[in-house]
Structures are given as structure tokens and as C-alpha cells.
Design a protein that fits this description.
- Helix content is 37%, strand content 18%.
- It folds into three domains: 11-19 and 30-78; 87-197, Immunoglobulins (Immunoglobulin-like, Sandwich), CATH 2.60.40.10; 214-333, PGBD-like superfamily/PGBD (Muramoyl-pentapeptide Carboxypeptidase, domain 1).
- By secondary structure, it is an alpha+beta fold.
- The chain has helices at 10-21, 31-48, 52-78, 214-225, 238-250, 261-267, 278-290, 303-315, 326-333; strands at residues 87-92, 99-102, 106-115, 126-132, 140-142, 153-161, 167-176, 182-183, 190-197.
Length: 335
């Protein structure tokens, strides 16, 4: 059977060590020195005789207190209050940066924003012009008719017009809460940036979601000629909008979801006598409903359609060749 060696056995050895360390090289006969060494021996003995449990408890309490203080301080340093009003940019729904817009042409910019603050946006909130190029936009307008709770998104739109001179233009926008405080993203305002081109608006008119009319019929017919499957009703609704976006993506155009100069150039199809299909329907629809020519809208480019095209070209000062190319298309769709 093994016996544990009491910790007290270590004391004499330690006392001898301490006593030896305090002995001078030549020992004077000094009673005060002996008393000092005796006091040191008693202090060392008292420490060694202190119960192990007491030492461990003290150490544990020190570590626990240190961890608690450190954790509390770290949490307090990293947790920041959420501001009442702040927005986060999600994406450009329309008009990507540097989209080409004809000078003087109207367009609609739409941003998708997220409410990342702690306050709900209500009908009292407004979209406000902040700085840069205003592009005929309103100084302020109502943000929403409903509410946008924290964590929800909203599509924010503003109607603008490209400046009269060609160039790059950028306008900055923010939001304003009912009390008058203006706020934006954590980095500042959100913006719209376009390149105004020198193409005359009268040559290539611009159409967007919400528009109706004979020109929209033509757009839908032409989209079908490029592979879409639209119900042609003359209403630029969500399905037509989606088809325009798909067409622009396929053709590598700016995905502004607006039928403007760039999209028209890619959308039109040259037609002449002997042709048929949706593009011919577009020509016939424009000639009959917009300019009053008495022809059938049947998708067949026959002699009557050819005669109507030649008469139209003569009236518009164009070469009367009966071929519907870019110049004739521009005159057919101009507002």
C-alpha cells in the first residue's frame, strides 16, 4: 500500500533553503539578523501551510471575473444602435449607369431600396432631389401610399428628361421623413447616371410601361417577329415590359426596359412587297390606324400595302421605293 507524502515534509527542506539563501558569506554575531531570518521562515511556513482548496478557489474566482469583465466589455463595444431611418440599395430596376438616352427624351428611373432602419416608412415620407443634374425631376414627391416596414423593399420611381445637350449626367437623390430630416444610404445618396445622345427625339420616340396606342401595337408585333409570344393589345403592360427586357438582354443592349433609339434600331425589320408576318402587321397597323390608309391588316405585304407605303413615303419627303427601312420606320412611329 502506497502512502501519500504529507506536504509538511517539504517545509523543513524549504526552510533550510531559505535560511541558507539569507546567510551572508561571513556570519557576524548580530541578533537583529537572526530575528529577521526567523521572521522570513515563519512567513514561508504560513504560506506553505495554506490549504490547497483556498488557493484554487482564489485562482478560479480571478479567472471567472476576468472572463466576465472581458466578455461584457466586448459585447458593449460591438453592439451599435440601429438608426431610425436608413435605406440600402438593392438594384437598378431601370436605367443602368451610363444608359444612352436621346437628348430631350423622357424616361423613368426606378431604384429598388430596402428599409434597413428601425422606423416604418409611411405616406409621409418623400423622395427628394439632393444634388447634381436634376434632369427636370420633381424637387420632391411622395415615396409611397402605404407603408414599408423595417426589412421590406420598395421600388422608387421618378420621371426625368434627358438634357438638351449631349453628355454624361448624374443626379443624386435621397429620402425625407415627415419631420424634415433627410437620409439616404449608409454611404450617402443613390443616383441616376445617363449618357444623353444627339439622336433627335422626333426620329426615335420613347415608349415605356404604362404607354398605350398604335405605336405600342407596332412594338408588340415587332417583338413577336423576334420570337416573343405577346397578346397584341396596344397596352405596354408587365408582359410587354418583360419581353422588352428579354429582347434587350439578347441583343446586348442597355437593359433600361424602355423602347428608345437604341432598342428601335435593333427592333425594326426591313419589309417590302412579297414579305409577310408580324413585322408587316406592324406596318399595316400604323398605316391604317395612325395615317388613315384603307388597307387590310392581314400580315401580307401585297400590292395595296405597297401602294400605301409609296404614297406615305412621298408625303413624308422620302424616296418612294415601297421598302420600309429605317427612315420609313422612323416616320411611321414618330409622335
Amino acid at each position: 500500500m502506497k502512502h501519500k507524502t504529507p506536504q509538511l515534509i517539504l517545509i523543513p527542506a524549504l526552510l533550510v533553503f531559505i535560511f541558507a539563501c539569507n546567510m551572508p558569506a561571513s556570519q557576524p554575531n548580530d541578533d537583529s539578523l537572526l530575528l529577521t531570518q526567523a521572521a522570513q521562515i515563519v512567513t514561508a511556513s504560513a504560506y506553505l501551510l495554506q490549504p490547497t482548496a483556498t488557493i484554487e478557489a482564489a485562482a478560479s474566482a480571478t479567472v471567472t471575473a476576468t472572463l466576465q469583465v472581458t466578455a461584457t466589455a466586448t459585447l458593449q463595444a460591438t453592439v451599435k444602435p440601429i438608426p431610425c431611418n436608413m435605406a440600402s440599395f438593392i438594384l437598378d430596376v431601370t436605367i443602368l449607369d451610363d444608359t444612352s438616352i436621346a437628348v430631350n427624351a423622357p424616361f423613368t428611373k426606378i431604384w429598388r431600396l430596402k428599409n434597413v432602419g428601425s422606423c416604418t416608412w409611411t405616406s409621409g415620407y418623400q423622395l427628394v432631389y439632393d444634388s447634381g443634374d436634376q434632369m427636370s425631376g420633381a424637387a420632391s414627391q411622395q415615396l409611397t401610399n402605404g407603408t414599408v416596414a423595417p426589412g421590406q423593399t420598395i421600388d422608387v420611381s421618378v420621371n426625368l428628361t434627358a438634357p438638351a445637350a449631349a453628355g454624361t449626367y448624374k443626379g443624386n437623390w435621397k429620402l425625407r421623413e415627415p419631420g424634415g430630416a433627410v437620409f439616404g444610404l449608409s454611404t450617402g445618396p443613390f443616383w441616376v447616371q445617363i449618357k444623353a445622345t444627339a439622336v433627335a427625339a422626333a426620329d426615335w420616340p420613347t415608349f415605356k410601361q404604362g404607354d398605350i396606342g398604335t405605336e405600342v401595337f407596332a412594338i408588340q408585333f415587332l417583338l413577336n417577329a423576334h420570337g416573343a409570344n405577346l397578346n397584341v393589345d396596344g397596352n405596354f403592360g408587365p408582359l410587354t415590359r418583360a419581353s422588352v427586357e428579354d429582347f434587350q438582354t439578347d441583343k446586348g443592349l442597355s437593359e433600361d426596359i424602355i423602347v428608345g433609339p437604341e432598342t428601335w434600331e435593333a427592333l425594326i425589320i426591313q419589309v417590302s412587297q412579297g414579305k409577310d408576318g408580324p413585322a408587316v402587321l406592324a406596318v399595316q397597323k400604323l398605316l391604317k390606324d395612325k395615317f388613315g390608309y384603307n388597307i387590310n391588316v392581314d400580315g401580307i405585304f401585297g400590292p395595296k400595302t405597297a401602294t400605301a407605303v409609296k404614297d406615305f413615303q412621298t408625303a413624308q419627303g422620302l424616296t418612294s421605293d415601297g421598302i420600309v427601312g429605317p427612315k420609313t420606320w422612323k416616320k411611321l412611329i414618330s409622335k
